[in-house]
Amino acid sequence: MPYSNLLNIFILACMWSPSFILMKLALEHGTPLTIIAIRLFIATLVLLAIRTVYLKKLVLDRSKVINSLVLAILMNIVPFVCFCYSLLFIPTSLSALINCLTPVVSIILAVMLLDEEKLDLYKASGMFFGLAGSLLIILPSFFSYDDNYNAAGLTCSTVGALSYALGMIYAKINISTPENILGVLPVQFAIAAIVVTILSFMFENPVNILYSSTYKFWMHVILLSIFSTALSLLLYYKILIKGGISLLSMTSYLSVVLGAVFFKEQMSVNFYLSCIFIFAGVFMVTISASRQKS
Which end of the chain, N or C, is less packed with Cβ atoms under 10 Å? Predict the structure, then answer.
């Protein structure tokens, strides 16, 4: 695995991992849809500024609009809403752990749909360990009344993870150059921001939330918008284009550790067993990606 890929993965993991914590902190002062709408609008402005610097003209054809719309649904609207609502019901580290379904499902879909993603023993073993770990943490919610395993929160996180996986496959197939990234991302975020803003006015009271918001609320949302959303998605697409889907599977796991450390959330034995299984799966998939690149 090239050192540049390792560096990019480490940076992306550092940018992504605080997102669950920042969302949970923002939820102490706001409501989910309003937070997501602000997050998306700020990210849109950042991406438009970056696009203006690197691409002087914004050329929108039919394919870019369609790609932006699909990715707005799969990569922004569905996962952002689902994960944000999940944090109202389950701990941060548990929601982050369920997000580990994303690389497992995306690898399965990539093997079936993409020629460059070949299935070998390491990748198959990684998928097995990842699925086993994910099921170990999800299934007990249907047989237990433990507050840490709220079914609504688990369902929201699972839907969000599956949506990310589908978006990853769609992006890999339809976005192949850095120019396409800068052309699609601002439109993608703008569409998502408009849709979520409409939903926030339908189901929440964003004006009152904005009027009564504190500086801590804005600090958390701005950090979430710039580093864990706009800049991280640019790097995410860069790794996806150059390294492939298997390589991206390394970036979904620091949130588990951060949630447990910063919030001191008490988890069951199932949680720690799931961590062992899922990290083993990531290790196996990483070996597979390295072997296929060499």
Answer: C
How far apart are the C-alpha atoms of 292 and 294, rounded to whole Å?
6
Burial bucket for residue 174 (CB in 10 Å: 0-12, 13-18, 19+): middle
Distance of CA 139 to the CA centre of its chain: 22
Residues 237, 244: Cα–Cα separation, whole Å: 10
Record the pTM: 0.82
Q: 235 by DSSP, 3-state: which?
A: helix
Measured between alpha carbons, how far is residue 252 from residues 8, 184, 236 in Å?
14, 23, 11
Q: Is-contact 137 94, C-beta < 8 A?
A: yes
DSSP 90: S
CA distance 236 to 259: 22
> Alpha-carbon distance 251 to 263, whole Å?
21
pLDDT at 11: 81
How buried is 247 (Cβ within 10 angstroms: 0-12 exposed, 13-18 middle, 19+ buried)? buried
CB–CB of 168/102 below 8 Å?
yes
